[in-house]
Design goal:
The complex is a heterodimer of chains A (559) and B (155). Chain A is mainly alpha-helical. In chain A, 72% of the residues lie in helices and 0% in strands. Chain A is globular. The chains are: A mainly alpha (559), B alpha+beta (155). Chains A and B meet through helix 7, helix 9, helix 10, helix 11 and helix 14 of A and helix 1, strand 7 and strand 9 of B. Residues 102, 137, 139-141, 145, 148 of chain B line the site of one copper (II) ion (CU).
Chain lengths: 559, 155
């Protein structure tokens, strides 16, 4: 009872005095590291772009595949995870009345575990002991310390996830019968999905470690790959869900609007958690050892993942239109002009959303089996995920940065910084569209991904790719400059911008909004359904891969 | 959850497009035999050289206008390489890997398949247009991956 009183008290001080300084420190640490990682990863990206166009020969001590392994891991695993944890913890603190001391401790331990893991992974990659890409497909075998590093990264992610679950459960206990605030609902959903997605890769890594130490002789290649993609696919959809949370929670407030429908947002979270994991199979459409029937069922399972995005697309346009009409917009499309295009906190996530229209359409196309065969492992795919993760996710993260960092550092986004942010956003957009556009096109012409500069003995087909690869390099250069600018802005907002008060934007429901039904909070049921769907997708093919497995593969080090 | 009229229309149309794409994909796969390469035979990856048919890789005519290419992929080459077939031939590639995961792609066609150690993969293509097609490995397989290529000449 006394405890409960204390908690509500802290909730009130939190509202009155702004962010708890301990919680601010936690998130600022995560975000600082995320932006340092972005800088490192972006630098490596530039090297790749220049090399692929034949403009830069890498020195003998820095191999293209070493660089690409680091770029992939740093950006699509480390940068995104750090940002997700930092951002979600700040919002959980904000909406649930400050973090519990024990949760804060968990979050710091999580960070320690992740950093230790990343240090092991980075060290093995830079020593040339692990040029295996972020997918580390066996029977290519990295140093055992590479896999052990991955274990610590996963452990950190689990700790961070459980910190959020504990926060939510504790809040529910103190606020019986109330709905978890929408921001925290997204945080719980995001971490739950990440946890579900990481189960497969954990099993895989635990099989690879004894093999890497030489305690077991061979490994099941197909099984490993399948377990990896249960994670690889799910992870990028978690990053996307993190971005979506800002679209539903923050963006409406920034444009002076209201949330569209609280229930709809929660349904989007629930569907994302339930439907996502089996999507891993769309990365294995042209693999042997998976039958045509199973592959066709997975077209259905992968397409179903687009359902929450279709709901989101509608909700976003509805929010924008209503906000515009409230400001007096007339006609069918008059609301477009009423949107605050000059406000980078809106512009960046808006471009992110618009980009998801072609990027999502491309995804729907390439999950249809025969179309996948046209583009699988070509640069088209790399273009696809630089649009989805590189624009939709990353630009939304940048858009969040412009209010989250000043909110935490008790500073302000000045008009000048806002303008710099707009320039950054435009540079990033042009750079990504140039690079990803070129990748899509040259991929259709046959240029493969994960391949350093090669003319294949001056074969005419490969020579025909040159102009596209050149435009890839130009886009990549522009992007690198945009990375530098973004990192500068982030640290400026942290340490240099003028002191002031920045709010954490949380949109309010419409005045006449219908109450959210209680069933949205039945997490136990969602977990059961998620497992049912994961079983539908995996039981038959995985049992087949184990029971009808060929003799295993011994290790190879081919780099 | 109450839905708006416009939202219902949007969902019906977009889900309709998804279903249509599935119908087309399913029809092509099962009625037109265009399903992606999904062969399910296995092999001991450490005994490829001793196991038929890979103990004798090469190009074999199976009947009039039809060929089978029995091929092994290994770092960083294809065996056999520099293949030649007459225009109009239907060629089935039967492949496996002797070491790590490789990809088999013929630029300018839809031939694209993953080739794994322990598994036999098959893909068939009819080559109508004469020319020298570039065959390349499209899965990272090690330091020389960018050199792993050969050609198939159709004349
Ligand atoms: C300066 C900005 C960037 C540049 C210039 C850049 C450039 C590139 C290039 C040229 C490749 C691929 C080459 C190949 O397949 O041979 C690549 C791969 C990749 N990039 Fe980026 N990129 C940038 C930013 C990002 C961001 C922000 C993300 C994600 C958050 C990202 C994620 C990836 C991933 C996951 C791969 C695939 C790695 C693999 O195939 O194993 N990149 N990037
Ligand atoms: Cu996926
Ligand atoms: Cu290769």
């Amino acid at each position: 009872m006394a405890l409960a009183l204390k908690e509500t008290f802290s909730e009130k001080t939190n509202k009155a005095l702004g962010v708890n300084s301990e919680d601010a420190k936690l998130t600022l640490t995560y975000l600082s590291l995320a932006f340092i990682i972005l800088f490192l990863g972006g630098t490596l990206g530039l090297l790749q772009g220049l090399n692929r166009a034949g403009l830069l020969e890498l020195p003998s001590w820095l191999n293209y595949y070493q660089v690409l392994t680091a770029h992939g891991i740093l950006l699509v695993v480390v940068f995104t995870t750090l940002f997700m944890v930092g951002y979600f913890y700040s919002g959980v603190s904000h909406t649930l009345g400050g973090l519990l001391p024990k949760v804060r401790k968990i979050a710091w331990t999580a960070l320690g575990s992740m950093l230790f893991g990343v240090a092991l992974v980075a060290a093995t990659v830079f020593m040339g002991e692990a040029s295996v890409m972020y997918t580390f497909y066996p029977p290519m075998q990295a140093s055992p310390w590479f896999y052990i590093g991955l274990v610590f990264v996963v452990l950190g992610v689990w700790l961070a996830a459980f910190g959020v679950f504990i926060s939510a459960a504790n809040w529910k206990k103190r606020n019986r019968g109330q709905h978890l605030p929408m921001f925290s609902f997204f945080a719980v959903g995001g971490f739950l999905l990440l946890f579900l997605g990481s189960l497969g890769v954990t099993a895989e890594v635990l099989m690879l470690i004894p093999w890497a130490f030489g305690w077991t002789e061979t490994v099941n290649v197909m099984l490993s790959r399948t377990l990896f993609w249960a994670f690889g696919h799910t992870a990028v959809n978690v990053w996307y869900l993190v971005a979506v949370s800002a679209w539903y929670v923050a963006v409406p407030k920034i444009i002076g609007g209201r949330t569209f429908s609280d229930t709809l947002a929660r349904v989007v979270v629930i569907l994302s958690v339930i439907l996502n994991v089996p999507g891993g199979f769309h990365h294995q459409i042209i693999d042997p050892a998976i039958g045509e029937g199973i592959k066709f069922m997975h077209v259905f399972m992968s397409l179903s993942i687009s359902l929450p995005s279709l709901l989101t697309a509608f909700a976003m346009f509805a929010i924008f239109e209503r906000a515009g009409r409230k400001k007096g917009a007339k006609g069918l499309l008059g609301w477009i002009k009423k949107l605050p295009w000059g406000d980078v906190r809106f512009l960046a996530p808006m471009i992110a959303m618009i980009t998801f229209i072609p990027a999502g359409a491309g995804g729907i196309a390439q999950t249809n089996n025969q179309l996948n065969q046209v583009v699988h492992n070509s640069l088209w795919i790399v273009g696809h995920f630089h649009l989805t993760v590189g624009v939709t996710v990353a630009l939304t993260f940048f858009g969040i940065t412009y209010w989250l960092i000043p909110y935490l550092s008790k500073r302000e986004l000045t008009p000048k910084l806002n303008k710099l942010g707009v320039i950054q956003t435009l540079m990033w957009t042009v750079g990504m569209y140039l690079m990803a556009g070129a990748m899509h096109w040259v991929g259709l012409l046959g240029s493969p991904r994960r391949t350093s500069f090669s003319t294949y003995g001056d074969h005419a087909t490969a020579l025909g790719w040159s102009p596209y690869l050149f435009s890839l390099a130009i886009g990549g250069t522009l992007l690198f400059l945009a990375v530098v600018l973004m990192v500068y802005i982030a640290f400026h907002l942290m340490f240099k911008a003028p002191k002031g008060n920045t709010e954490f934007p949380i949109a309010e429901p419409e005045d006449d909004a219908a109450p959210t039904p209680q069933w949205t909070e039945r997490w136990g049921l969602w977990i059961v359904i998620a497992f049912a769907i994961i079983s539908m997708g995996y039981v038959i093919p995985v049992v087949d891969m184990i029971v009808n497995a060929p003799p295993g593969s011994p290790p190879f080090r081919t780099w | 959850m109450k839905m708006h009229r416009a939202e219902e229309i949007w969902l019906v149309i977009s889900v309709g497009v998804l279903i249509l794409s599935m119908v087309v994909t399913g029809y092509q796969a099962f009625a037109m035999d265009m399903a992606p390469p999904s062969h399910k035979e296995t092999i001991d990856p450490q005994k490829v050289d001793q196991t038929a048919p890979f103990d004798n890789p090469g190009v074999f005519q199976t009947e009039e206008g039809k060929y089978e290419v029995v091929m092994t992929l290994q770092i960083f080459s294809f065996t056999p390489n520099k293949i030649e077939v007459p225009a109009g031939s239907e060629v089935t590639f039967t492949m496996t890997s002797k070491d790590v995961v490789h990809g088999f792609q013929i630029a300018g066609t839809n031939v694209n398949a993953m080739v794994m150690p322990g598994h036999i993969q098959k893909i068939t293509q009819t080559f109508e247009e004469p020319g020298e097609y570039l065959i390349l490995c499209n899965e990272y397989c090690g330091a020389g991956h960018q050199m792993m290529s050969t050609t198939i000449t159709v004349k």
